[in-house]
Amino acid sequence: MENHNHQELIQKLLNCVAACENCALACLHERDIQMMAQCISLDRDCADICAQAARLLQRDSVIAHQYLLLCEEICRLCADECSKHDQDHCQQCAEACRICADACHEHHEPITQR
Amino acid sequence: MENHNHQELIQKLLNCVAACENCALACLHERDIQMMAQCISLDRDCADICAQAARLLQRDSVIAHQYLLLCEEICRLCADECSKHDQDHCQQCAEACRICADACHEHHEPITQR
Amino acid sequence: MENHNHQELIQKLLNCVAACENCALACLHERDIQMMAQCISLDRDCADICAQAARLLQRDSVIAHQYLLLCEEICRLCADECSKHDQDHCQQCAEACRICADACHEHHEPITQR
Amino acid sequence: MENHNHQELIQKLLNCVAACENCALACLHERDIQMMAQCISLDRDCADICAQAARLLQRDSVIAHQYLLLCEEICRLCADECSKHDQDHCQQCAEACRICADACHEHHEPITQR
């Protein structure tokens, strides 16, 4: 089955979900949350979209590889924002997002434009 | 807030989710499910992706309009498959998917390619 | 089909999702986000759980009515927190959560304990 | 952080999601899908609910441990159905569901009834 070839990619997506959830949770406990507002928003979008991407790959969806193009984009946006902050949870999240973005980049397909 | 401008689009996305869930459920009760396997798969992907799109619009996500490009694509794929079947639930689902795809088409943005 | 009987409940669940997303978004733009941290967390959990409840009802899931028990609980927790804050988005969210909790209460079933 | 204590539980939830997605996909390709209709439905509910449970634990949600009660129930229902079928994907899914249900059982809290 197709999804057996994607174990590594799926694992990177799930690692990214975990890192984003951890980062959003930690951001909400920071003293200066204001500075973290954009980070919290992007963490959430990135976690939701990576989690959905993993599910689509697991069920061998016809849209899975096009979905990865979008997944790469949100991972890069989230990595860019997180890398601006010195906190460990942000730096770890930025790294997980970059690894995931690169993996998505290798496997994505262009989205059919009609 | 941005999301106030998108009430109509969000409603079409949620209508599409409901039509896809209804169609998948009805397909599982058809006598010849075999013929419906592809329909069930696409219904599920389409419902998941449209539901996520509505959430992204509601929270004014930076990725929302790029997400709509993908959402349009799965709606067209699901509409194409459903329109092959004569059952009411398939015909209604095809119609909801087409309406949703057209609405996504009006609001989507190209996905940044890096 | 079962889900036809649940249109009103499903609508209240979806209204609650929209109110929670709107509230979380607005909280992230408040000057004193710190005070809103718990609200943002509960909004998110409540939106996710109500959205899932709507999907389970739409697909006539065997677990749907047990799920409503949990859904009621998160709606009450979110309403309690939101009602502490004077902002319109919090007051509106508290109201949507209470309406949704009451609707879940009418339809839920006890969870089988084994 | 709380979620660090739950790595093993989260892994069992994610294994269950993967097994359910794999089983649903394989069921849709079986010659006698009719017999598999209930299995496909339960696989889907179980995957959705376990995935949500993992997210709630990762973000240290106040509702996470109550959610596990419901998660245990859908895992037991899915395990019961899958164990009726001889196919490898069903047997593997039943096993993953049982392991996950037992893990949920250890960590769940009763749902507050108001």
TrEMBL record, chains A, B, C, D:
Coiled coil: none annotated. InterPro entries: Csp_YhjQ, YHJQ-like. Pfam families: Csp (PF03860). This is Four-helix bundle copper-binding protein. It comes from Mucilaginibacter pocheonensis. The lineage of its organism: Bacteria, Pseudomonadati, Bacteroidota, Sphingobacteriia, Sphingobacteriales.
